[in-house]
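STRUCTURE:
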């Protein structure tokens, strides 16, 4: 528990603001011991270690004794068990998550309450890092990576909204990233602790009344209609997702303040600082998707998760350079003048001096003349001599005959 410096009331570990007066809380001190570590919950789950904490409860790594399977166990804070509304909300989280069957949604395995009053939810154990830790360690993301992660969150929201579940508390801590062989950024959406369940006619059921003066949700990611206390639909989650995407691309939240009221007022009345002031390399199309997601009026946002997903992926696709064909890659590129913005002619490239190929003549190979070849040569020579003698005799005969007949 963390004590509020303004009203001195105790707040759950992990809270950023006091749920009673809204004052920003100091960083909680790390607790040296935990009463649940080493215990067996409900005779089934051996608690190994605490791996997280939130406003509703602590998260533990546990082992299912019968199956020898590691699970994540969410246990409601002890001081909240006395309030029936908190217990109902905790059980509603289990029901909301159990409605969903999607690879990007956390899988609920079991839930119940022990004889000594501990309420718990058993979920699949995810060994990855949450998005909050990734942003803290790595800083702003490239648009392609951010779009890949957000597209999976939108797939999970589409599954939730189609089953009448509105998350209402999207933030980096509730987006877990697993490193799989097929995908190093595989997403699981967690924590439907303040989800609102609707039937397919759009009416709320299993609703509850919050305690007077209590603030639920995370103000930095709340939609304007959620802050005003209006009836919500899936477009409220899209606004929260826009805030999350803004943070992933810029490395900072669009609205910050020292109190809940200051942050809430900014969401209601102010426009976020332009993304391109923080990331000049971002394309206008990507910034436009973020701006539309964060529209103050829900009518101006994308109307469902799949529409937002298609718009984001298309914006990133247009911004991604296409592969250059080999014919274009080898051609001289135009040079742009910085002063005139005109295309300058490329400098002529001197071609290397052509060298004519030199033909090298070699003496033909000498072969020995065989006896057969010698005989053929002699025969041919004799034949030529005989033809010459015959031609001479014929010419002599005709000449003598002509002179005799013509004196």
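SEQUENCE:
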């Amino acid at each position: 528990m963390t004590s509020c410096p303004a009203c001195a009331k105790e707040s759950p570990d992990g809270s950023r603001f006091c749920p009673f007066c809204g004052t920003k809380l100091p960083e909680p001190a790390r607790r040296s011991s935990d009463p649940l570590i080493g215990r067996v919950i409900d005779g089934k789950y051996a608690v190994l270690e605490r791996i997280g904490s939130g406003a509703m409860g602590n998260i533990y790594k546990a082992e299912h004794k019968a199956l020898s399977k590691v699970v994540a166990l969410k246990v409601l804070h002890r001081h909240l068990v006395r309030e029936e509304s908190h217990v109902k909300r905790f059980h509603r989280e289990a029901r909301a998550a159990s409605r969903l069957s999607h690879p990007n949604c956390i899988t609920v395995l079991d839930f119940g309450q022990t004889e000594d009053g501990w309420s718990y939810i058993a979920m699949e154990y995810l060994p990855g890092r949450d998005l909050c830790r990734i942003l803290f360690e790595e800083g702003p993301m490239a648009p392609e990576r951010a779009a890949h992660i957000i597209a999976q969150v939108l797939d999970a929201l589409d599954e939730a909204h189609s089953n009448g579940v509105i998350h209402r508390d999207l933030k980096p801590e509730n987006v877990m990233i697993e490193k799989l062989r097929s995908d190093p950024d595989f997403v699981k959406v967690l924590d439907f602790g303040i989800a609102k369940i609707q039937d397919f006619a759009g009416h709320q059921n299993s609703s509850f009344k919050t305690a007077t003066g209590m603030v639920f949700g995370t103000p930095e990611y709340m939609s304007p209609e959620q802050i005003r206390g209006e009836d919500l639909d899936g477009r409220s989650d899209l606004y929260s997702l826009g805030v999350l995407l803004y943070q992933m691309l810029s490395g900072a939240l669009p609205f910050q303040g020292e109190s809940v009221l200051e942050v809430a007022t900014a969401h209601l009345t102010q426009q976020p600082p332009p993304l391109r002031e923080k990331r000049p390399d971002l394309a206008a199309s990507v910034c436009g998707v973020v701006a539309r997601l964060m529209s103050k009026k829900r009518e101006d946002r994308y109307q469902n998760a799949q529409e937002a997903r298609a718009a984001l992926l298309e914006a990133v696709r247009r911004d991604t350079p296409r592969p250059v064909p080999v014919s274009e890659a080898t051609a001289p590129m135009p040079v742009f003048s910085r002063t005139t913005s005109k295309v300058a002619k490329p400098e002529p490239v001197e071609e290397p001096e052509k060298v004519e190929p030199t033909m090298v003549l070699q003496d033909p190979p000498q072969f020995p003349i065989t006896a057969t070849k010698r005989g053929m040569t002699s025969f041919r020579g004799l034949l030529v001599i005989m033809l010459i003698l015959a031609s001479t005799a014929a010419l002599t005969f005709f000449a003598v005959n002509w002179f005799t007949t013509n004196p």
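REMARK: The longest strand covers residues 45-53.
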